[in-house]
Amino acid sequence: MKTLLAVLLLLSGVVRAAEPDPALVEAAKKEGTVVWYSTLIVNQIVRPMSEAFERKYPGIKVQYSRATSSDVALKIRNEARARRVQADLFDGSNTVFLLEDANLVADYRPRQAAEWPQVLRDTNGHWTALNLFYWTAAVNTNVVKPDDVPKTYDDLLNPRWKGQIAWTYDLTPGGPPGFIYNILTTMGQEKGMAYLRAFAKQEPVVIPAAQRVVLDKVVSGEYPLSVMILNYHATISIGQGAPVKWLKMEPLLQSMSLISIVRDSPHPAAARLFTEFMLSDEGQKVLADNDYLPASPRIAAKVPENKPEAGGFKVNVVTPDMARDDLPKWVALYHELFR
């Protein structure tokens, strides 16, 4: 009985430790509002996450708006110049780097992520991973016979795929620059550059749209094959009966969406509390339930195989620092080789 009691007390201590500081909760309730500038899809996750937070903390209202990373950063910068900071926190894959130079990012190290791998959190406290992305290839299973499905990057060089591979025009780590980084990291500089020159001769088709649209063109059969699409996007389509399959073309490329707090925001306590909620097991489960891939190592995806631990696939990680420092080099190579 004493042993059982000790275990129960230990477990209750873990639960209490995972809960936010009561003083933070009280301060956030006094502020009553938190303003979130997001790059994520409103109906898919922004609204469900906001509603879950409001249920847990009645009296705190979440106000949100959605835009691209660059537009979110521009809006925050313009509001700061006008001395009318509106946002409390923001997300995005590279938004934080567009704001750091202007000293508009607060230092905050969320308790919920304290034990996460260091690659998922900034040593300076400027960002923490909110959700993960895994970029890979996909095929239309009605168009491409099972024996013809490419399994490796070298298979993409088969003459049958010339002019048949679609990818986005998005010059971010989730587009051709990320593909270039992944190949160079996997194969090394010399072999990687040789591969990229050979891949350029395959004349991949640039689609002037986002990665989801590229995948939709594969689903419709307009193109049999695409690269640099998100594996969970394919899984969503599969669940709707679409003839598509994402490929474990290893290594896949991992990037991440980051959550950060605005320096001198109007509701600093609510910003910290909302951040803690989104990174908690409860908040990360909201992400998973709505088809996003949670950053927390503790929370599985809705389809567990979409994360490497359950899916059994290798990845190369584009860290936020790489995205900030090295993206111009990858973009320059894209223009040299593919345009």
General description of the model:
This protein has 339 residues and is α/β, with parallel strands linked by helices. The chain contains 13 helices and 11 strands. Helix 6 packs across helix 7 and helix 10 crosses helix 11. The N terminus is likely disordered.
Task: Give a topology summary.
Elements: H1 2-18, H2 22-31, E1 33-38, H3 42-56, E2 61-66, H4 69-81, E3 89-92, H5 95-100, E4 128-140, E5 165-168, H6 176-187, H7 189-200, E6 205-207, H8 211-219, E7 225-230, H9 231-239, E8 244-247, E9 252-261, H10 268-279, H11 281-289, E10 293-294, H12 308-311, E11 315-317, H13 320-338
Which properties best describe this structure?
339 residues, alpha/beta, eleven-stranded mixed β-sheet, 13 helices, disordered N terminus
